[in-house]
Amino acid sequence: MNELIAAAAAAMDAPEHLVERSAIARAEADGISPEEVLAAWAGGTAPPSGAPAPATTAPPSEEPAPAATPAPPASPEAPEPVSAPVVPAPEMAATAVGSPAAPEQVTLAEAHRFEAVVTGATAGLTERVAASLPRWLTVLFFAVPLIGLTYLIAFAGGANCGAGGQLSVDRLTGLVENCDGSVYKAGGAAGGVDVRALVGEGSALYAAPSSCSSCHGASGEGGSGPALAGTLLDTFSMCTDHIEWVSLGTDGFLGAGRNTYGDAGTTVGSGGVMPSFNDTLTPQEIATVVFYERVVLGGQDVEEAVFDCGFAEPEVP
């Protein structure tokens, strides 16, 4: 039988052990002897039952080889890919957010009614679908005009017009104006004093470098020194006291043994150091800048300030 196996294996170009096992199995299936099957295979004929010969392929390996994916038939002219718009399925639903009373799910057609919807529930993605402003920006839209309106009502003549509604000086043109914006008419003051020229010169002295505005603010609002706008006349009801304080300053008062200044007896040095302007300004210039402060920032009546600061003498009947 070994010779038949070798002959059949040589004729079929297959391993002998595979041919032997195949012959035995075939013989049992067809009811014949293995020798008859081997003899037929060795001679190149079919077994007596006429069954086909066993497969001549190599035995399968322990790990089957992956099946090869057939390549698609080549096309002579492949069309360019066309991207189609993604249309969500009608049955999809979105979760609405941004509203306490919003339903758990809405249709795609209803999504625009809400500020935002969760379109990918498993990923937690939120998509804003309605245009809305942040709350702080909405508040700002209402607050800014309200503040501006309040400012216009409180300071109809501008921040430089004084608490008493007296004269102001246009920062660009240097013209002296009334609080309603009209130009202050020259002349007419007692003693022939040109109030317009006096206020204009006082404004320039007040705004000069290292002068009054550097400590008290451009509009008398205060800074390193106390505020003048609206409070000046309460501190110095008399212009002569005001002039004396500007002339001597903190050091001058302390050197003269004076520890307080002003109507309220404010302690010298409690509001900061007041420099002395005796060395930098003439007495006339000090009186001029004090006149400006009292009329424009303090709101003192113009005619009263002319007499109070010594620019004219009241007429004796």
What do these coordinates show?
The protein is mainly α and 317 residues long. It has helices at residues 2-12, 16-30, 34-42, 135-154, 195-207, 213-216, 232-235, 239-255, 283-297, 302-308, and strands at residues 95-97, 116-120, 125-128, 168-169, 176-177, 260-261, 266-267. The strands form three sheets. A three-stranded antiparallel sheet has the order 1-2-3, with no helix packed on it. It has a two-stranded antiparallel ribbon with strand order 4-5. The chain has a two-stranded antiparallel ribbon with strand order 6-7. The longest helix is centred in the middle third of the chain and has 20 residues, at 135-154. Residues 55-62, 89-93 and 155-160 have low confidence and may be disordered.
